[in-house]
Amino acid sequence: MARFNKKHGMSNTQTYKAWMDMKTRCYSKNAANYKYYGGRGVKVCSEWLESFENFYKDMGEAPEGASLSREGDVGDYEPKNCSWKSRSESSSEVLRGERNAKAKLTEEQVHCLRSLQKGSNPKYFRAPLLAQELKTSRQSINNILQRRTWTHI
């Protein structure tokens, strides 16, 4: 009976896992990273959504250590917009600021934070209160103020 359920025999491969992960982050509201993909409107083209074989035909085997990447981390998952990239290639293309799907703040908010910090008495400048107001973490505020993040502005 099991032989009738197998279409491609690749369900234990890195390529198949990448295909499943792509679909999960775009369509499963329970996925941890859904808010950065499906929650922001990122979709999978119908040919790939319906068939692993179509995905495999277009993308080929995933190279060792590579992950599926959208060009510039924007747009939908479709043949003309995707490629296999190593982690170092993917991380060098990380979008900055508001174009980063994971950014919680805007450039204007970051400028305001830095301006507040310059003009404030450190005794009264409270990152936890700002973080609560901006719905982000205290560490994010500190990273911005110490220029470990948002370094491009």
Task: Explain the overall architecture.
- This protein is mainly alpha-helical.
- It has two domains: 86 residues, no CATH class; 47 residues.
- It has eight helices and two strands, in the order ααααββαααα.
- It has a two-stranded antiparallel sheet with strand order 1-2.
- The radius of gyration is 20 Å and the shape is elongated.
- The N and C termini lie far apart (60 Å).
- The N terminus is likely disordered.
State the order of secondary-structure elements, H for helix, E for strand.
HHHHEEHHHH
Structural class: mainly alpha
Alpha-carbon distance between the termini? 60 Å
- Given the structure, what is the number of helices? 8
Q: What is the typical, i.e. mean, pLDDT?
A: 83
Q: Please state the overall shape, judged from the principal axes of the Cα atoms.
A: elongated
Estimate what percentage of residues fall within beta strands.
5-15%
Helix content: 40-55%
Number of strands: 2
* Order of the strands making up the biggest sheet: 1-2
Describe the largest sheet: 2 strands, antiparallel
Q: How many domain units?
A: 2
Q: Radius of gyration, rounded?
A: 20 Å
